[in-house]
Structures are given as structure tokens and as C-alpha cells.
Protein 1
Amino acid sequence: MIICEPECVGFAHEEVNAGIIGQLLKAGGDGDNLLVVERQHLSCIRTIWSSRAYSSQDFSSRFIKPRRKLWDFRPLKILYLRWLSGTLLKEAERRGTPLVFLSVSTELFMVLHQLSPAFENVNIIIVNHGILEQLVKEEPVGKADTNRWFGTWFFRKNRMLNNLIISPHIAQNLRDDFGDRLPSVSSIHHPSVWMDIEADRSASSPVHFATIGKMGKRKGEEELVRLFDRLKGKPLPFLITILGYLAYSTEDERITIYNRRLSREEISRESAMADYFILPFRKDSYRYMVSGVLFDAFNYGKPVIALSCSLMDYYFSAFGDIGYLCRDEEELYNTISSLSADFPVERYKTQVQIIMKARKMMDKENETVLAGLLNNSFQDEQ
């Protein structure tokens, strides 16, 4: 097969791309595989693979330079993508292999809709993640046309293009929201290269909570601030670490906010010391997007303490006791307080075991879906 990452450079989306490229290569089996990618991005992916003792199928590589400064002028970006897509479509036709595009942009969507009719024998797979939020995202006036433009191409049905959605909950939300307008889609769980961790954990005192990333509105910035304000002065034995950014100032030594970008090594070290991940996502968030932090928690084998939203509701329903799903901020506060005062050792061990089983189940489900797509037996999920 041919796999093309047309957008990402360096460490951008390195975790999800390390996962999906590895799973695509495994599902496709032995063969003449070509990866078209930016050089440093492939280096980051290889680092993840080697650090987690992951062995991928063989492939050759061809390097490109995405996101050139000239791309700010959209017509030039479209010309570049027409050239890149046309070249790879011809090569896929010649080889008789599937062609997979990752990190799809609005411009690439348009180009593939225009070029695909001339390549009826090429199995084209488009991975959609992140960009789907443009279907409903409210933007300033200057960006509103871009969002409508993406929807125009996304909803245009084309039997030549197989849309792959990252997370089953997104596919279901799209069907609920758009019905017959929706083109055929299939979905997989957020692909991951799992770490080898110890499934058996002992109690720690104080109990350590953590989360990763820049805490904006979607990730629960306001909810975290209110939680910290309520915990202030309470004589509870806990530690909370924000492995990223949060606009909050405190003298409480139990709360650590880095307010900088951490290296992969720092995140790994701090995450390994945590007991739980806090995911206070807003109720209306992550309908068309999956959270990498949730899968960071799974990767480190950590139960989550989350506010109810579409994403979290799905994964608690799918896998069971993977942590604590809170109806509101009051329950979130009470859960943090209760766990800090009395750490439930046996339930914690059970939760970790459930997460480890869930990781295997997700890998197996992903492999089945990807093998079907690559064998051109794509069918719209019901």
C-alpha cells in the first residue's frame, strides 16, 4: 500500500500517526509498502516505535516537505496537493495497491473528489480526525467560509472515497446529526502504540492526579479552576499535576502547573507516577473529535475521572469500569475528595486490568476494520 501524511511535520500528531501507520501496515500484511512523509515526522514515529519495542512491517519511505510558507496562499497549496495526489494515484494504480491519506485538509478533500473519477481501480482511504469539527464549529467571520467549504466537499458522496473516522462515537454522532446527508463512513478507535506497563498497582499516599495538554475551554479549563478553588484549604492528601498549560495561580504545594511544553520523557515520567487522569471535558465537547489525553491515560494504564460527555459516555459504556464518570462538577469534586481520603486499592487494580483488556480489544477491532478497508470490502457501518 501507499500511505501519505500530507500535513504533519516534526512531532505534530506523532502518537496517533505512529499508531495508525503501524496498524495499517500490520493489517495490510507483507507487501510493497511505501510511506510518503516529512523526514523529521518519520523520525519521531520511529522513536516511539523503538522506545516501546514495537516492530512494524517493512516499508520504504519517500520524503516530502509539507506546510511550506507559500501555503498561506490557498491556490498554491491546492496546486501542490493536486501534484502530490495525482502522482500517488498514478503510482497506486500502477502498483495495484490501496492509497491512504492521513490528516486530510479541506483542500485535499476537494482535490481527491476531483481526481478520483479517473482512477476507478484505486482503493482510496481518507482518515478524518480533527477536521470534522469544522462541520459545526463557530468561527469568526473570516473563517466561516472555510468551514462551509469543507462541509460542501465532505457531504458530497463519492463511491471512490472511503472515509475512515477516528472513534466510533464520532461516526455515531455524525449519523445522528446528519442522517442521509452523511457519506459512507467506517470507524476505528484512536490508534495507539501501547506501552508495556505493570497491571498491578499498589496504593499511593498521597493520591496523585494528572492531566496533559493546554487546558482550554474544551478540555475543562474553567471546570479545573473551580475544582482547585474548592479544594483550596481542604486537609486532603492529594497531588494534582497539570502537564501543560493552565491559566491559574496557586500557592497550594499540592498542585503543580508546568505552564510549558514538556518533553516526551518528562510526560512519561510524570504520567507513570500518577494514579488517575482527570478529564473534566465540557458536556458539548468532543462530539466530532477524540481526545488524545484519554488514550494517554489508557497508554499509561491509568483510570480516568471524567465529566460526562459524548466521548466519555461511549468509552465507559463500551468497556465498563475504567474509572469514574461524573454527572456534574459536584460529583467530580466529591470523587476527587473521596479518593484522596480513602484510596480503593482493590477497585483500582480491577480498573487497571479492565483498561489493559480494553487496549487489546481496540487493537483487534481496529485490525478487522482496517483489513476490510484495505481489501476493498468497505461497507458503511450501521
Protein 2
Amino acid sequence: MSGLDTRGLMDGALRGFDIADRHFARKDAREARKQGLRMEDERLRMARESHEANLSLREAQAKRAQEQHTYLYGEDGKGGSLREAEDRSRRKDEAQIAAYESRKTSRTTS
């Protein structure tokens, strides 16, 4: 009996299955690559935002330090609140000394 030779049919089916399998594997690999690239883009965006926020914070801190320095020492380093406080303290001390001297001389003359 000469039967039907199915070797060619099975060979074609296996080749077709292999082609379909490789096609879907490549499609899955492309999707995985795209997903990885999207995640990397998101990570880079977040890192950039974090860097920009840190930079803004450092700039604000530097500005505040400069303003604090100017407040304490003045624009030219010869004034500011420390100098004003020192001047007030000196005037107060001089006034207290003058008052003491005044009382002292008024007691001795009486």
C-alpha cells in the first residue's frame, strides 16, 4: 500500500510554527524594549526634576545667606544691624556713665 507521504506536510507545519514563534518573540522583545525605554525616560525625567529642585534650593539658600550677611554687616561691611546694635549699646553705656557721673558730682556738691 502506498500511503500518503506526510513528511513534507509536517516539515511545512513545523517551519510555519517556527516562523510564527519567532515573529511573536520579536514582537514581545520589541514591546519589552519600548517599555524599558519608557521607564528609563521616566527615571531620567524624575532625576532631572530632582536636580532642578536641589539647584533651586541651593540658590535660595545662597540668596538667604547673602541677605543675612547684608543685614548683619551692611552693604559695605561697615554697617548693618550688628553695627547699629553696637552703637545703641555704646550710647546707652555712655548715657549710663554720664548719669552716674552727674549723680556723683551732684552728691559731692551738696
Protein 3
Amino acid sequence: MAMTEPTSRRRRISKGALRTLAWIGGAVGFLFPWAALSLSPKPAATAGIQVLPGNQPREIVVRHVIRRIVVEEPGPASGAGVAYVTSGGSATAPVAAPPPPVTTGGSTPPP
């Protein structure tokens, strides 16, 4: 073949055919993992549980612990240097003022 002869151009695939091939390839790539997992052999139901003679399953005991705080008035035998301190939400603590209302910056007032 001489260099002066024109070469024939390879024909291109249309856009529609190319899009169809892309959709088919995407669907196959998306569904392949599920197909591979469904075709793989399933393990036996007792394969994960191995009870050896020295390794018996233990009984699990669940205990709910409830703590109570009992407040008693000091008796006459209490010492003079004892101070009683309350913790957390004391009723005599000063209450902070509520924060100012939040504005939305729009034309409607906040609820």
C-alpha cells in the first residue's frame, strides 16, 4: 500500500448506542456484587459456635442498681464543725434570667 492512497476511516458508534452500552455496563457493575454473594455457598448454622469442653458458655446475670439518696435532719449528737452541702439543683440557687428573644431577620416575627 502506498502512502498516497487514502485510508478508510473506521465507522463510529452513534450516541444512542454508546449510551445504551454505558447503561448496560453500569447495571451489570451495580448488580454483580449481589449476584456473586447470592451464588456463594452459605455457612452452616452452627459453624460459628464452637463449644470446647473447657470453654462452656457462661450464664450472664444482669443486675439493675438503683441508688437512693436519703436526706436526714441532723440529730442532737452532731458535731459543731460539720457543714452540710447540697449538690446540683438546689432550690435556693439564683435562677439566671432567660435569654433575649431570637430574631430571624426576616419580615415575620419569631413564634
